[in-house]
Amino acid sequence: MEHFNLRRDEIAALQRVVPFCRAGRGTLQNMALSCSAEGWNDLLIYFWQRLGRCVAELELKIRELGGEIGPDVPEQNILGADPENKPANPLTVDKQLIIRAVDHLAQLLNRYAEARRISLSFDVRMLLQRHQLQCQEILDRLSSIHFGCDKRQDQKENFNMNITINQERPMIRLPDVKTGDTVTVQSANRTK
To answer: What is the pTM of this model?
Structure first.
């Protein structure tokens, strides 16, 4: 009887994790297909595949334990069908996609932590721990990409804002590459 209750608890714990894992997979899929930054697509497709494997392993374990799996409800595209609501700046779209993926992965990590708090058999506990570590790695990498976007955007805005045009004597303030300080460069007087 105790073995049956343990199995039932394991199935319930895994079933609570599956929808969040599917949502994370859908978000990463959307991100991989919508990302405008070159070079990120391969990494995002890799993350999408890893979460897809996690979903498949969870569903397989539920079936092995004798449980039922609910239907997979695909996530709606974050950009929607209305192109007028889509931001004009592709970097803004990428940042929105990253933020959404980070949010889904944070929720998924919480679900894994909740599932691991109950009494589980060794194989189910190790499966959840492995998935949790993989999701944490993906979350860390996406967070570093997100902060890299902010840094590049800030540098671009600072560069654009530091150009001052004076009719008599044009000046340009640029960041010094070595020190990071602002350097002011004046051109020669204009001749008319």
So the answer is: 0.68
